[in-house]
Backbone:
């Protein structure tokens, strides 16, 4: 085993050092992706999961880490210690992510794991490797209302030094509306998985439902995974995956990512986790413009989002 492969995830990121930068985006099928992802696209597209693998898909900052933690705990019968065996990106590799060596790519991490594997992606439906559907893999999609998702993504882009510079908030709203951010259009993203959810057996969840009644949604995920856990274990999972407990959990709060990459002094990775925080950021004029555009972009679907107004 080489020295680079022996490095811990955090050590590998630290060793990459000056190679970490705000990477430009390159479009794949009209979807902006960070350049390292685009350069490795053929390998990502060719990925063949095992039929037992589970995909967790979201637009960035829509409850991804929360869902990963819930599923990992469900798969380990609520064993908190088992779910502290490694940081989230090691336990549940990020399929398409690629960074400068010696940081392992998502594909590198997956190669070292035996199925069933828990796999994360932010790819829109049309860019998910087709073998997931050919092999009838289960997939969980989490959608978050547009304005809260936008605000959370903005703060993430401020602190994530690998994403393009977010610029001022007013300009960021425009980029969100026009799909110019990494991983593309929120509108295309939530609609793509919604339209395919029944044909592809995708469990489509809403962030707001998870906040309103986490136990109900944990039980929905449990049933989807064909698991049967005791009420006591379910209660324990709900408690372990509360926002406060996850924010304090070093295996889930991304403190494994050094500050030159994720500068959590600018904004914590787990910032607020609230519904309706957008009201503290949008001006009345921005709200009017956004709402009018939202109606146009979502007129062809009836996805039951809440907390837009």
Residues:
């Amino acid at each position: 085993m080489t020295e680079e492969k022996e490095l811990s995830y955090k050590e590998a990121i630290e060793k990459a050092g000056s190679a970490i930068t705000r990477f430009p985006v390159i479009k794949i099928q009209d979807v902006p992706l960070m350049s390292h992802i685009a350069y490795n696209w053929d390998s990502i597209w060719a990925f063949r999961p095992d039929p037992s693998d589970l995909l967790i898909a979201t637009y960035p900052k829509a409850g991804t880490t929360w869902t990963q933690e819930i599923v990992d705990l469900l798969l380990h019968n609520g064993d908190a210690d088992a779910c502290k065996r490694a940081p989230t990106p090691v336990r549940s590799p990020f399929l398409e992510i690629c960074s400068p060596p010696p940081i392992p790519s998502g594909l590198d991490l997956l190669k070292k794991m035996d199925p069933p594997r828990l796999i994360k992606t932010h790819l829109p439906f049309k860019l998910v490797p087709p073998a997931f559907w050919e092999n009838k893999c289960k997939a969980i999609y989490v959608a978050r209302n547009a304005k809260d998702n936008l605000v959370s993504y903005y703060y993430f882009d401020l602190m994530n030094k690998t994403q393009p510079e977010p610029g001022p908030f007013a300009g960021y709203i425009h980029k969100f509306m026009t799909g110019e951010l990494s991983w593309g259009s929120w509108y295309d993203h939530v609609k793509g998985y919604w339209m395919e959810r029944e044909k592809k057996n995708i469990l489509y969840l809403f962030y707001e439902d998870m906040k309103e009644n986490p136990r109900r949604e944990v039980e929905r995920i449990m049933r989807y995974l064909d698991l049967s856990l005791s009420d006591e274990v379910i209660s324990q999972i709900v408690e372990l995956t509360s926002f406060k407990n996850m924010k304090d959990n070093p295996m889930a709060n991304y403190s494994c990512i050094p500050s030159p990459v994720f500068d959590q002094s600018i904004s914590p990775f787990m910032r607020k986790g609230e519904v309706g925080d957008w009201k503290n950021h949008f001006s009345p004029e921005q709200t009017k413009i956004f709402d009018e555009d939202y109606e146009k972009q979502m007129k062809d679907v009836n996805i039951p989002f809440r907390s837009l107004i």
